[in-house]
Structure formats: C-alpha cells, structure tokens
Specification:
Blueprint (H helix, E strand, L loop, with lengths): L12 H19 L4 H14 L5 H5 L2 H28 L12 E5 L5 H10 L4 E6 L2 H11 L5 H4 L2 E5 L14 E7 L12 H12 L2 E12 L2 H15 L4 E5 L19 E4 L4 H10 L5 E11 L10 E4 L4 E3 L2 E7 L4 E7 L15 E3 L8 E4 L4
Parallel strand pairs: 1-2, 1-4, 2-3, 4-5
Antiparallel strand pairs: 5-8, 6-8, 7-8, 9-11, 9-13, 10-11, 11-12, 12-14
The structure holds S-adenosylmethionine.
Length: 373
C-alpha cells in the first residue's frame, strides 16, 4: 500500500492527503460488499437530515461504518491537517515540524486527530486517543497500523473515557498537542452546556507541555461556530488560558452581537481524485472545506507585534462598485473597502479565516470602524 507518512516519502501535505483518501477508500471497499457510494450517501443522510447524535449508532451498521472510514475519516483528518499547516505557517505552533509530537486526541472516533497530526507533522512520538466508544478507535487503529513502523504503532494507545468526567482521562504526561475535533457540539448547544465544556477544556489544558497547544475544531456552521465563539469569550476570562487564534485581544467577540454572523474559515485544497469522484456522483460540494476553531495554550505572554495581525472574518461583499471585507484586529472589528475599479484588487483574493498583516495595505484600501455598510 502507498504510505502517507512524512518519514517514508518526502511529499507535500496535499500529496499525503491524496494518498490517504485512496488508501481509506480501498480499505473501505474491502470491508463490505454493498455499494460504497450508496453507503456514503446513506451516512450523509444519517449525519445531516436525521442528525445522528452518536457515532455508536452508525458504527453498529457495517455499511455505514465503512462509509465513515472510506470518506468522512479522511475528509475530517485532511481538514484538521490543513488547518494545522495554516497555523504552523502563521507561527502559532512553534517547533512542531522539528520534533515528533506527543498527541492527546479527545473524542477521537476512528483516531481522526491522531491521523491529522501525523499527516501534518510526520511520525508521532506517542499518541493517546480517548473516546467513550472503543469500536471506532479500534477501526481507526486497524486502518492506520499497516502504515506505521512497529515502534510507532506500539506508542498509540486507545483509552475508553468519559469527557464529561475529566478525572477519567487525567494523564500525567505532558502533550505537545491536544485535539478536540467535532466533539464539543455533541455536549449540546446553548449556554446551558458551557460549564461542562469549560470544565473539560480547563482540565485538558493542564496536560499540555510548555509550548503545547490545544486545537478545538468544530463544523463551520452557524450554530456550532456561535457556540464556540461564546466558549471563547468565557475562556477569555480564565487566567490559566491564552487564546492564540483565530483572535487574541478582544474580550467579547464582536461577531456574537448579530445573530446572523458567525466566525468561521475556509480552506482551499487540492481535492483528492477519490473525493471528487464521490462528490460528483452524490452531488456534494467539497471544493472548499469550512471550519471553526480555537487554538489555546497555557497562559502565555503575547508578542508586541500582534496588533498588526488581522483575521479575515467575512467573504467578499460587493455593493455599488465597492468590495468590502470584515477583519478582526486584536482590538476591534473593522471593515476594509476598495473600489472595484482599482486595477489590482487586494481584498477579493483574501481567504476567509486568513491572517493578514495590516502593513500590507496601501492608500487604495479604506479602513472603517465596525461594520460599515
Ligand atoms: C463526531 S465524532 C468526531 C470524531 C473525530 N474527533 C472527528 O473529528 O471526526 C464525536 C466523537 O466524540 C465522542 N464523544 C462524544 N461525547 C463524549 C464523551 N462525553 N466522552 C467521550 N467521548 C465522547 C463520540 O463517541 C465520537 O467518537
């Protein structure tokens, strides 16, 4: 089988993602006789229209289980790996490329966070996956094991635990990366569930090494993103936590004021051939991946030059010959605007979620306070 590890074959992340999709899809084809594309479509219905709230329910069905392994597992791992790569480029993950990481994947399902860290940064020093369901973790391990050297395979541990009771996963060792991906929304939406999420995060953050990072990823839809924004504001009050991304200095997220806004990002990627084939047959559109996230650490001093870094938090808004984009600075929400007639558009190519440096804007860009219309 082709390997998607960094150590065996120097390649780009996009190449490794391509290989991961090919391998996962072939693996899934061998797991069951039914039509795999039909199973992926069924699983999509279960996840979106019927809003299945437990991985256990669809992992019990052999057809749906392998649909997850063949399509959703590589899709989610790719999204997290691309986000990790973006954060590394922004300078928010110091040293992650140089050393093998110790990873804690909470609510891991089929080891999606482990897989993503490995895709992004190569072989891991040690990984612990925690989930209340052992079946999906075993399925992930069974898929991953043939690609690992024996000593790395022996350093991946599966632990059953309840994230609602943080004492059940109180590991003493420090981790470079703690991942919580697509898990918090399973705790429930609205402020009622905030204390439970806070308790989980504050317990897990203690397990980080100095310089370690916690990445929380959630679907990029309005409900999940707004829940995450509210969580961010609550974490801002905590003395033991630093919020490193997507935003830093503001105490209250300005996008929370208006119920139709939500902070999320987009990743443009080279969609793997297998993914494009499935999407074309079923009618999905995964040409771009949406996400919302928080990157946290133990309390850290912020570098001075942070005030120059602005986060793009909207798409392009065209109105009466002007294009506008919203950006969050460490102090406030701003609107950038540029005449569409300007020869070179600076604003339109920006990707939602991208970090930009304010010094790159010249007199063609107007900067307005708040949400100018
Ligand atoms: C949607 S899956 C996400 C799996 C994987 N992290 C990903 O990004 O694809 C959510 C996972 O969280 C686990 N989970 C939800 N609540 C949990 C809890 N209280 N304790 C342990 N695991 C939990 C579920 O069993 C499931 O595997």
């Amino acid at each position: 089988m082709t390997n998607f590890s960094q150590s065996h074959k120097p390649s780009t992340l996009e190449d490794r993602i391509e290989q991961l999709f090919t391998n996962s899809y072939r693996h899934a084809e061998r797991l069951h006789r039914s039509d795999l594309i039909g199973d992926i479509e069924k699983l999509w219905r279960v996840l979106t229209l019927e809003r299945a709230d437990s991985i256990a329910s669809y992992f019990k069905n052999a057809g749906l289980r392998r649909a997850y392994m063949g399509y959703y597992m590589p899709l989610y791992a790719a999204k997290i790996a691309l986000l990790l790569q973006r954060l590394a480029k922004e300078g928010s993950l110091p040293d992650f490329i140089e050393k093998p990481l110790r990873v804690l994947d909470l609510g891991s399902g089929p080891l999606v966070g482990v897989l993503a860290s490995r895709l992004a940064f190569g072989p891991l020093k040690r990984a612990i996956a925690v989930d209340r369901e052992i079946g999906p973790m075993r399925s992930g391990y069974e898929f991953l094991k043939p690609f690992l050297e024996e000593d790395e395979a022996q350093q991946i541990f599966l632990r059953r635990g309840n994230l609602g009771v943080p004492q059940s996963f109180d590991f003493q060792e420090p981790f470079d990366l703690v991942i919580l991906s697509h898990v918090l929304n399973e705790f429930g939406s609205s402020s009622r569930f905030l204390p439970k999420k806070m308790s989980l995060i504050l317990s897990a953050i203690k397990m980080l090494s100095d310089g370690g990072r916690m990445l929380i990823v959630e679907p990029g839809n309005r409900v999940c993103s707004r829940d995450l924004m509210a969580l961010r504001d609550a974490l801002f009050e905590e003395t033991s936590v630093s919020i490193l991304a997507p935003c830093t200095g503001i105490d209250q997220c300005p996008l929370l004021k208006n119920s139709t806004d939500w902070c999320h990002g987009e990743l443009n990627w080279r969609r793997p051939a297998v993914c494009a084939k499935v999407d074309q047959i079923i009618g999905f559109d995964k040409s771009m991946l949406k996400y919302s996230y928080l990157l946290l650490s133990k309390k850290e001093q912020r570098p001075e030059n942070d005030v120059e870094n602005w986060r793009v938090v909207s798409g392009n808004m065209f109105h009466e010959g002007v294009v506008r984009r919203y950006v969050c600075t460490p102090c406030e929400l701003l609107t950038l605007s540029q005449k569409e007639s300007t020869t070179r558009s600076v604003l339109t190519p920006l990707v939602r979620g991208e970090l930009i440096t304010s010094s790159r804007f010249d007199e063609r860009i107007q900067v307005l306070n708040e949400k100018a219309k």
